[in-house]
Design a protein that fits this description.
The chain has helices at residues 14-24, 26-31, 43-52, 105-119, 134-142, 181-191, 202-211, 250-264, 279-288, and strands at residues 4-8, 57-63, 66-75, 80-81, 94-96, 124-130, 146-157, 171-175, 214-220, 223-230, 236-241, 269-274, 291-302. It is α+β, with helices and mostly antiparallel strands and 304 residues long.
């Protein structure tokens, strides 16, 4: 009978964890890639995890004394979770190499992390998956996690001509500059209601701009009223249009030119994510020809 043992990671095993990671997530790295925050990690990447989150914990699973997988426990103020971050490429933080799957390794890793969470007084644990990963969905469901759709992803093939969209001729679209920062702070505060207004500053917006490949603004009657951007990994960031200027075709016009800009830069596709309740955004993506490709689930399990 196979023996599964889950033990703590020890310094010096960064190479082991990177190999487990790269093998365990190989399918998703090569099919979804950087666009969905999947990527190969080096031992140096692994060594940065404790520096980024000192309270995090790594566990190694062994099957008959052979390394079979790992789990990365992330601690946040409200709960300890598998919440993804860009520092680890957004993985679920539980990886099992293919030859050891369906042998209880993943379940053992999750059970060990849940014990760890309980020992720290966490009230809940959280996991994230894409709908593509059927094995992870079954594993989480089988260990008592409850899902909800947190995000919908859609893609547009930019190798094809864009659809004919009625544009607002009064809208001027241009690239954002540092001279626009004061106006852009207003767009962040008024349009992105998921960002606390008190946390928005010109320096923060400048940092945001520098992280984007290209950011475009919409001017309407000499007022800066909209902001959208895209990344090198084809992801879109649609801060939107100031509420009082909506329903004038400004958003559609800005979005059209953003996609044209991506085509000129040679992007093969555009990727956008949205909440399932944002009906107006979903309507716009559908009008431009975006196709739903996957959903992102957040799974929660109460521990007490």
């Amino acid at each position: 009978m196979a023996i599964i043992k889950v033990r703590p990671f020890v310094d010096g095993e960064e190479d082991l964890v990177s190999r487990l990671h790269n093998c365990g997530f190989k399918e998703w790295i090569e099919t979804l890639g950087q666009e969905y925050l999947y990527g190969y990690l080096s031992p140096e990447d692994i060594s940065q995890w404790p520096k980024a989150s000192p309270t995090d914990t790594l566990w190694i699973a062994e099957l008959d004394d052979s390394p079979a997988g790992y789990a990365h426990c992330h601690f946040s103020k409200s709960l300890m979770s598998y919440v993804p971050t860009e520092s680890d490429m957004g993985q679920s933080k539980v990886a099992v190499i293919p030859e050891y799957r369906q042998r209880g390794v993943g379940k053992a890793l999750i059970q060990r992390t849940l014990e760890f969470y309980r020992s720290r007084g966490a009230k809940a644990a959280e996991a994230v998956t894409y709908t593509d990963n059927e094995a992870a969905l079954k594993l989480l469901q089988g260990t008592g996690f409850v899902p909800r759709v947190s995000c919908i992803f859609a893609e547009l093939d930019l190798k094809n001509p864009l659809r004919n969209i009625e544009l607002n001729p009064e809208v001027v679209v241009r690239e954002a500059t540092e001279e626009d920062l004061k106006a852009l702070v207003g767009i962040f505060i008024e349009s992105a209601d998921w960002i606390p207004g008190e946390n928005i500053s010109e320096q923060g917006v400048l940092s945001w701009l520098k992280e984007r490949d290209t950011a475009l603004i919409a001017e309407y009657r000499d007022q800066i009223v909209g902001l959208m951007a895209f990344d090198k990994n084809h992801g879109l960031h649609l801060m939107g249009v100031i509420p009082e200027y909506r329903r004038k075709g400004i958003g559609y016009t800005l979005f059209f030119y953003l996609l044209k800009h991506m085509q000129r830069k040679g992007h093969p596709k555009a990727i956008v994510d949205t909440g399932p309740r944002l009906k107006e955004a979903i309507k716009m993506y559908d009008r431009f020809g975006f196709k739903l490709v996957r959903k992102h689930y957040t799974w929660t399990k109460r521990l007490f």
